[in-house]
Amino acid sequence: MRKLVYYVASTLDGFIAAPDGSADFFPLEEDVRAYLAATWPQTFPTFTHARFGIDRPQGRFDAVVMGRATYDPALKIGVTSPYAHLRQYVFSRSLAPADHPDVEIVDGDPVAFVRELKQRDGEDIWLCGGGQLAGQLLPEVDELVLKVNPFVVGSGVPLAAREFDPRRFRLLETRPFDSGVVVLRYLAG
Known about the structure:
The chain is an alpha/beta fold. The chain contains four helices and ten strands.
């Protein structure tokens, strides 16, 4: 069965974006960028591949799921298919599918949809964000990959917005960088 992998940048205090949803305060340090391009190339938007030397973004994913707020920054710069190399699913009750032909707009229950998606043939599924969607899908997350940045920001979009309900993850891998970023991989359970 396919796995749902929540792969996201975070601050030390557990925020994935500023209160306005922006994430431009996360620097992409050269040591981290090189590692991510080699290890997680599919998580770079398609339009950035040439700039980062990514020829064919091969890896473990063939699909990406994201919330409307995660999709919006691409739309603001005129990109309607940010991850064209993957099957793209955007959860939204307000976007018209006809206006976004390169992504599948899903207006139903995210948990039911992801459970069904995990049953289909294919590679793993990347949960790109954001905090509201991650909060709903946390029980379905099989692996959590955090790019923890050495910042404390105080407020913003949380890693997983949800009611108090502790979920335990088992540490699988730690990769520190000179820039202070640490990539942590966890398995559910």
